[in-house]
Backbone:
């Protein structure tokens, strides 16, 4: 029966191969979408790894600097640094925005890092070209995914920055490449208003009758000064000393600083369980739809091939061929169709993945699971044709 199935495939090889290619493209899309989800998780893990932090200190009752808006005073890091078990503490800001280079805009996450040295929390851990930021203003380190080159001039809000270093795989949880600039510049870009807004706010403040009272001297000047300065950051990144557990250090920060503290496991749960959960469910729905479409294609083509050889099946039954053997022949064709489709899909996904704007991670384990899932779908889809074959009357071989 194996040779009979093979001969039948050779007899209709054109229909069989082209159907396999079409099925393979669907399987390729399925593998790519699974890779998109894996890439989203990998981006989130890369964000946490590259931060160089063991604890993330954020505004009270928020989900941290990545999932929600967080704003805390930039002088709190000194008190946290003095807590036993803290090896390093650094302010950081995150702002997703359009970074302009010439006439081109690039979507990026602008990261403000404190003055320090490479290896400090928040700093890019490695460079592929150039150097780290050494000045307090107007220098930037960019991920190569932005397309920027050393020496390029970037415009972020009102200021211009020169790219002095390039890094790799420094991305946000959404896959946006990062651009690192000095903290003071990032605070200005994120929190300060533009000149027109400051001027209008000064006029509103000055026109307030409350400031005409003699018992508030200098209050107007103080408010105006506060509108042109900024003392907030999004989070404090904390690195622990060896021998201390995250909870030992986090508990006094929560108690005495009245801030929210997350460890690595909690941040992973926020990124995967909350930030990309909706995208994961959406991708899961698409995978189910694609599986149903693939099953329908396999069922249709196998059913068509079975209909074309009703007379041959009747002859087999007439000479005493068992139903189990006939069913095995049909399933062999379905499995061959699935194998061709999977090979085509795997090749298509592998070559297409680098061209996607988001990171696509094709894992061998997913491919193995996908291969057996395709075979199972093909077996289930062939049951319709098997049922048709088993109901064929042997008399049809004589009736013509």
Residues:
């Amino acid at each position: 029966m194996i040779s009979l199935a093979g001969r039948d495939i050779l007899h209709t090889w054109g229909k069989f191969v082209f159907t396999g290619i079409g099925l393979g493209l669907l399987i390729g899309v399925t593998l790519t979408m699974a890779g998109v989800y894996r890439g989203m998780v990998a981006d989130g893990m890369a964000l946490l790894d590259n931060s160089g932090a063991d604890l993330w200190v954020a505004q009270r009752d928020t989900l941290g600097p990545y999932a929600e808006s967080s704003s805390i005073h930039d002088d709190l890091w000194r008190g946290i640094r003095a807590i036993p078990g803290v090896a390093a503490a650094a302010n950081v800001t995150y702002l997703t925005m359009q970074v302009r280079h010439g006439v081109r805009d690039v979507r990026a996450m602008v990261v403000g890092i404190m003055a320090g040295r490479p290896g400090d929390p928040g700093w890019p851990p490695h460079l592929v070209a150039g150097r780290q930021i050494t000045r307090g203003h107007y220098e930037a380190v960019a991920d190569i995914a932005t397309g920027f080159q050393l020496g390029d001039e970037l415009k972020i809000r009102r200021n211009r920055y020169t790219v002095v270093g390039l890094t790799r795989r420094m991305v946000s949880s959404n896959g946006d490449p990062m651009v690192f600039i000095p903290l003071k510049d990032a605070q200005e870009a994120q929190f300060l208003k533009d000149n027109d807004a400051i001027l209008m706010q000064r006029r509103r403040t000055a026109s307030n009758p409350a400031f005409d009272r003699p018992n508030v001297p200098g209050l107007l000047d103080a408010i105006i000064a506060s509108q042109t300065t900024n003392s907030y950051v999004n989070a404090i990144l904390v690195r622990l000393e060896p021998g201390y557990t995250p909870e030992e250090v986090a508990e006094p920060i929560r108690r005495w600083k009245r801030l929210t503290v997350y460890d690595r496991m909690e941040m992973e749960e926020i990124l995967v369980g909350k930030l990309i959960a909706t995208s994961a469910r959406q991708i899961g729905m698409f995978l189910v739809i694609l599986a149903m479409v693939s099953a329908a294609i396999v069922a249709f083509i196998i059913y068509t091939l079975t209909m074309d050889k009703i007379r041959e099946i009747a002859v087999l039954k007439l000479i005493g061929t068992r139903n189990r053997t006939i069913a095995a022949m049909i399933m062999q064709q379905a499995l061959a169709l699935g194998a061709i489709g999977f090979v085509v899909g795997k090749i298509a996904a592998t070559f297409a993945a680098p061209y996607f704007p988001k990171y696509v991670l094709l894992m061998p384990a997913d491919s193995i699971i996908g291969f057996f899932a395709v075979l199972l779908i093909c077996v289930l889809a062939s049951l319709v044709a098997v049922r048709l074959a088993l109901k064929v009357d042997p008399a049809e071989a004589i009736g013509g």
User: Anything to note?
Assistant: The chain has a mean pLDDT of 83. Residues 13-51 form the longest helix (39 residues).
